[in-house]
Structure formats: C-alpha cells, structure tokens
Amino acid sequence: MKQRVTTAVIALALFIPVIILGGIALELTIAILALIGVYELFRMKGMTLNSFEGVLACLGTLFLVLPLDRYFFFLSDKADNMSLFFLTVMILMTGSVFSHNTYSIEDMGFPVLTSLYVGTGFHSFLLARGETQGDIKYLMFGLLVVWATDIGAYMFGRKFGKNKLSPQISPNKTIEGSIGGIVSAVVVAILFLLLYPGQDYFGHSNVVMVIFTVFFSIAGQMGDLVESAYKRFYNTKDSGTLLPGHGGILDRFDSLLFVFPLMHLFGLF
C-alpha cells in the first residue's frame, strides 16, 4: 500500500500540471501513454512492436489520438482520424498477400482492435481537454467520476462485500462494492454539479447528468473488468511494470478508456 500511494502521489504530481497546461504538452504525453498501452497489450500476447503488426498498430493509434491539423498538416484537409486509421488497416490486410496466404484475418484482428481500443480511448481523453473546449471541467468531471467509483467500490467492498461480482475474472470484486462505486460516483457528481451547473457546462440538466453518471460509473467498472479478463486470459498479473504497485498504463487507464468515449457519445464535450 505504501508503494501504491507513493507511486500515485508522484504520478499525479507529474500528470496534473500537464493536464492543466494542455496543448502540445498534453497531446504528446497522451500519445506516449497510448503507445505504451499498445506495447503492453502486444507484450501480454507475446508479440513485439518491432514487427509489421506492431509498427502499423502504433501508427494507427497515433492517427487516432493526435490532432491531424497539428501533427499531420501535410495531408489533405479532407483527411480525418478514422480514414487514416483505416489506411493502416488496409496496409495490414496486404499482409495476407505478401505472406502467401499464411496471414489470416484473425491475425489482423488483434493489432486493429488494439489500436482502435487504445487510440479511441485516449483520443476522447484529449477531446475532453481540447483547446476548442477551453475548459478543464470536462476532463476533471470524468476523472472524478472514475476515481470516486474506484475508491467507493474498494471501500464498500471491504466493508460490506459478500457476493462476488465476477469471480472468474476478478475474485476480489463484489456486487456490494460495485454498487458502492456507483453511489460514490453519483455523490461526487452531485457535488461537482453544485459548483458547476450541468446546464451551463455540459448542455444537460443536473438530473440527466446524474443519470449519465450511473452509466459512466458502470462503464468504468466494465473497462476495469475487461482489462482484468485480458490479463487472466494471457495469464499476466499486470499489464506492465511502469508504475510500481499499480502495474502498467492500462492498469491505470482501463476505466478511462471506456468512460471518456461514452462521455463524448453522450454529447458532454
């Protein structure tokens, strides 16, 4: 626990100023984190980035994460993130031709899904803090909902947890803890909305925002369970070792990669 707290304090001390600063500093930081996330998934599967699939997965992820007008300004102004991502998919699919039919669509599926999962999640994270939004409140709302869910689920689970939520995937998680995480997220969201009315900042009433928060909390918990399922499948304890006591980048961002795309889908930013 001491190691976890120390790592969390240091990570927040480094990351929060970057979030506040935004712009290029945040974009490049998120791009690096996304590439580390791709590396961690490839590592779990026993693959390397120093490969045809690895290079294209990294390239596709960067196409999804980074703003095109700043980093790919030499392209046509009609290009968009998804069309560039599909370009990497097209190149990946040519592997079936040049490998003389030994490279199947199943082989292509892993790098494509990896870059889509990681790239879209981190892209939504950047959109929440994007310069066009001009306000850090969108990003902070999502972070607070995820953090409240994690802390609430842990505390309620320890105190009241009896019924396992998904014992085959994550034996320590309980239904009571999951409900506690949702309740904690709603309480934090209400406090946040009292300070920054939802109608003014999110385009929705406070009642709708509370309902959305329930979905965000559930999505965050599902993101955590999905990552746990991957690790269980690949017989890996943590996605990586970058953060002592916490594991890898995906171990810390798994919930966020589900929550921020959903926030964007619901029109919060």
Pick out its properties.
single chain, globular, two-stranded antiparallel sheet, 2 domains
In total, the number of domains comes to: 2
What shape does the CA trace take?
globular
Question: Sheet with the most strands?
Answer: 2 strands, antiparallel
The N- and C-terminal alpha carbons lie at a distance of 35 Å
Report what the structure shows.
It catalyses: a 1,2-diacyl-sn-glycero-3-phosphate + CTP + H(+) = a CDP-1,2-diacyl-sn-glycerol + diphosphate. The chain crosses the membrane at residues 12-42, 54-75, 81-98, 110-130, 136-156, 177-196, 202-222. Belongs to the CDS family. It is an enzyme of class 2 (transferase). Keywords: Cell membrane, Lipid biosynthesis, Lipid metabolism, Membrane, Nucleotidyltransferase, Phospholipid biosynthesis, Phospholipid metabolism, Transferase, Transmembrane, Transmembrane helix. The chain has 269 residues and is mainly alpha-helical. The chain folds into two domains: 1-131, no CATH class; 132-268, no CATH class. It contains 13 helices and two strands. The longest helix is centred in the C-terminal third of the chain and has 28 residues, at 206-233. The relative contact order is 0.13.
